[in-house]
Amino acid sequence: MCARRADEDQGGLEQVGSVDRIAALTGVRAVAALAVMGTHASYGTGLLTHGYVGLLGARLEVGVPIFFVLSGLLLFRPWLRAAVDGGRPPSVLRYARSRFRRIVPAYVVTVLLVFGIYQLRPVRPNPGHTWTGLLRNLTLTQIYSDNYFTAYLHQGLSQMWSLAVEVAFYATLPLLAYLLLALLCRRRFRPVLLLAGLVVAAVVSPAWLVILHNTHWLPVGAGTWLPHYLAWFAGGMMLAVLAAMGVRCYALAVLPLAVACYLVVSTPIAGRTTAVTLTLFEDISKTVMYAVIATLVVAPLALGDSGGYARLMGSRPLVWLGEISYEIFLLHVVVMDLVMALVLRWPVYTGSAVVLFAVTLAATVPPAWLLQRLTRPRR
Questions:
Q1: Strand pairing partners for 4?
Q2: Quick one: pLDDT at residue 21?
Q3: What is the mean pLDDT of residues 335-363?
Q4: Which residue pairs from 177-186 have beta carbons closer than 8 angstroms and sit at least 24 positions apart in sequence?
Q5: Which of 161, 100, 101 is nearest to 136 (CA)?
Q6: How far is CA 135 from the centre of its chain?
Q7: Quick one: which of 254, 71, 255 has its CA closest to 163?
Q8: pLDDT in tens, 24-67
Q9: Which residues pair with 311 in a beta bridge?
């Protein structure tokens, strides 16, 4: 499945043949954003209740773990490179400033825009549409509550729980890097020890779910906190380590496995879409399977495959969409709601998921591009 490659540099993201692997990783971001949009289109049209097809639509939410794997891969690499080269670790202040500039401006504009739209177009129920909800959403603290779903969940911002998790990972990463590289590996590149430490980090996710399902120590919203999803970020961090080791991975070997895992997780093993809550087994199954799928999807692009899959992900249309994927993610839920109500005029849980997806994509791309142009960091 994977083989060592001695001629690859320590970063693991340089050009290989005619394939720009950085571009390919940007392209896969577009796939992740489109998958998230697909699962919301499935939900909005009621497709999720249509047996196995509905489960396939629901599991398109695997786009979120793909985003998390990419974050683990790309953001951990500078700390890892410092350990490999024996250099100084990255400046935490510069890292924080970079993440703030990339995430916050577009997010704040989106939140204010969404609250303005729903002020003019009241929708019920919409518990998050309050002054407190506005403050919570602006600060990405809406998930840290025992009544997140009944007090702070906004209909036009329902996807932002994952951004709150992402930001929690940003804040935690310097500490994780210190624990793994400075304390565990003594500031040296010890890949086996480092991979073992990342396996332990990944195990935090099922352990968190065991606690959540079997005790009353944590609030209901704790199911949306970082520990639940740490395994997804750890998958990307493992890929960074493997890249530094010179491991190479081939799409023809791992993508069929990713597809097989997707078909399996689209069975009731990971819960039925009509169920209000998941059992412990279903919750762990979904979390672990999503980690495997997302890591396998990213692995060939991170580990040097220069074949057709990398060329497809690095193609101009996908790279262009990938460059505005964050903005597409931010805007698509409110755009989808407006498309359903004002353009297609479909009642909720009716209509075609494919048509809703296509019209929403067409309507989301222009404002996403504009938002990206207006808020992207200036050099």
A1: 247
A2: 62
A3: 97
A4: 177/76, 177/79, 177/80, 177/89, 181/79, 181/80, 181/82, 181/83, 181/89, 185/83
A5: 161
A6: 23
A7: 71
A8: 999 999 999 999 999 999 999 999 989 999 999 999 999 999 99
A9: none
